[in-house]
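#lab-general

N.A. 3:47 PM
ok so I finally got the sequence cleaned up, no stray characters, all 162 residues accounted for. can someone with queue access submit it? mine expired

B.Y. 3:52 PM
send it over

N.A. 3:53 PM
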Amino acid sequence: LQMLEQQVVGGEQAKNKDLKEKHKRRKKYADERRMQLVAALQKSNEDSSDWVLLNVYDSIQEEVRAKSKLLEKMQKKLRAAETEIKDLQSEFELEKIDYLGTIRRLERDLMLFQQLLDRVQSLVRRDCNYSNLDKIKRECVWDEEAACWKIPEPVIQKTSLP
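B.Y. 4:20 PM
back already:
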């Protein structure tokens, strides 16, 4: 159980550098795309509003054509943004499914180790402090710096009768 706890932190493998790098790359990519979308929307808003306000049209047909082109351009940008949003949502959905699979696997492992502990507890000597698992759990302390549990040393208490 202690080995499992050392290997897993926060729902993911603590020592798996590839997994950490993968999450960093995904987060960086999502942040970059978000910034690009924000910049593109700001630019398009500035460009289109200035362009429409500054033009003086000779006829109504010319104004309609110009505004139709602008509308088509904005619709293309809207479709591109919607596609990007769907892509990001599907990527996050896949990541969510991956996390849920990891959580289920960890829960199964935890149940296995709990059942093993329940079976092994009866084999531990009664005069050992490890015979009472609840007491051991209360005495354990989490060490933030070492990222591990500090578990009390096993002690056998010898009692002699007078």
